[in-house]
Design a protein that fits this description.
By secondary structure, the protein is mainly α. It is 72% helix and 0% strand.
């Protein structure tokens, strides 16, 4: 019975997220119906928790079941009612072309599907057991449980002691509080089970993103590649937040990529839904504000001028991103500044001293290429980008590749020259930073592999 609260707890945030995305798409839907549901789940969770956070810090509600439920019910009624009234103006969602699989493709699909299902079952069993990982017990779950017990936002878990996590965004702990409220008591297995749902969402969203561009077998290949990345799969089975952040980044950057590939009304639909995810990034993890949002904003500006945006489209793009980023960023920065919370990952960035640290580059190289965390993905990604450099530089694919390279290479000086070098030597922080990029890397790798193999096929048929 306890785990039945998970789908019930996901229902309202998913509906809210679905409505928000559908409203932003307007008269030009660009998402597949199933894709909007999956993306709505991921966007709805962080969106509803951000609204709950704002209402709480201004003193309107606490973190009790009734008041958290009221926030979601009111949002559902308002957004759902608007969608119902406008239903005649909302065209049907696009549908992917139907394809018949060959017998061997069907067999292979069943085998891969059973293998992924087995991993998901194993991951769920592992998640609902006792939490063994430090950051689960001392950060995400500890804060969620404190919010649940006290029915309010607790910054200092242990009086007089700075545990280093007060400055973290609250979305994930608050959602765990929501699940615990539904259950009536704190249950580690229940609050952790949402992480396997996020892993399934990541697989689904990569599939939908690829399906918009390539055939069904190639989209399934992308899903298989993502499911076969050892460390990414591991993060689907532990209660860390890095995989959830990777989903939000995937939506933000890939939807910008699709905006660049399209024109007119479809372009602006993608811009609107991408901008709201970009704004909500600040409430996911500190890294999103410091490492990910600046490159996204840069890519938005570059894309506007290199992708033949009209003057009207440029104004609308700037307006949407400015308004939605500011709506999330300003309250969060004001909150952190008011309570003197660090702008960093458990450490204030102002406390970093700059000096060279030996062994960091070799540790990074070992982690990337020889430790087995990523399989052959880094080699394939870099090799295919070099082999297909014209496609990478001269098409909207440069958005995906550019973001990955900016963030990937931009992290290196942080580990080489600051006190965070220990996280590279211990194979912790650096590896988690790459987790955030994996869905995007898989998408690029699959698209480039598709391009080069189809070109070879065409050459052989001549």
């Amino acid at each position: 019975m306890t785990y039945l609260w998970l789908p019930l707890g996901l229902a309202l945030p998913t509906f809210i997220g679905w409505c928000v995305l559908r409203i932003l798409e307007g008269r030009t839907p660009v998402l597949f119906q199933a894709e909007r549901i999956v993306a709505g789940l991921c966007v709805g969770i962080i969106g509803t928790m951000f609204d709950t956070f704002i209402l709480h810090i201004v003193g309107i509600i606490d973190f009790s079941l009734i008041e958290m439920l009221c926030v979601q019910l009111l949002a559902s009624l308002f957004l759902g009612g608007y969608c119902y009234l406008k239903r005649d103006q909302f065209p049907k969602s696009p549908v992917a072309s139907r394809e018949k699989l060959l017998p061997w493709q069907k067999i292979l699909t069943v085998i891969i599907g059973l293998w992924i299902a087995a991993k998901l079952i194993a991951g769920f069993i592992f998640l609902i057991g006792p939490p063994y990982y430090d950051d689960v017990m001392n950060n995400w779950n500890m804060r969620g449980k404190a919010f649940f017990v006290q029915q309010e936002l607790i910054l200092q878990i242990e009086p007089g002691k700075d545990n280093g996590v007060a400055s973290y965004p609250q979305a994930v702990p608050m959602f765990k509080t929501w699940l615990a409220n539904l259950n009536g008591e704190w249950h580690e297995g229940l609050v952790n089970s949402v992480h396997i749902v996020w892993y399934m969402c990541a697989l689904g969203l990569v599939f939908f993103g690829l399906r918009r561009l390539v055939s069904l077998p190639w989209a399934m290949l992308g899903v298989y590649i993502l499911s076969s990345i050892p460390l990414y799969s591991m993060h689907g089975m532990i209660a860390y937040t890095d995989l959830y952040l990777s989903i939000l980044l995937f939506l933000s950057v890939s939807w910008l990529f699709f905006a660049a590939k399209n024109t007119g009304a479809e372009r602006m639909s993608f811009i609107r839904i991408a901008s709201i995810v970009t704004g909500l990034l600040v409430f996911s993890k500190n890294e999103a504000l410091l490492l990910h949002m600046p490159p996204i904003v840069l890519l938005v500006l570059v894309t506007m001028f290199l992708s033949s945006f009209t003057k009207s489209e440029k104004k609308q793009t700037l307006a949407w991103y400015t308004v939605l980023i500011s709506s999330c960023l300003i309250p969060w920065i004001a909150f952190k500044s008011y309570f003197d919370l660090a702008f960093g990952n458990a450490k204030s960035i102002s406390s970093f001293s700059i000096e060279w640290h030996e062994g960091v580059l070799s540790a990074i190289g070992f982690n990337t290429l020889f430790e087995g965390n990523w399989g052959l993905l880094p080699v394939l990604f870099v090799g295919l980008c070099i082999a297909q450099w014209k496609k990478v530089l001269l098409t909207p694919l440069s958005i995906l590749v550019g973001f990955v390279l900016i963030v990937w290479l931009g992290q290196l000086p942080i580990y080489m020259f600051t006190s965070l070098y220990i996280e590279a030597l211990n194979q912790t922080g650096y590896a988690r930073g790459l987790i955030h990029l994996v869905p995007l890397v898989v998408m690029v790798t699959t698209l480039l592999l598709h391009s080069i193999l189809h070109r070879k096929k065409e050459e052989l048929s001549v």
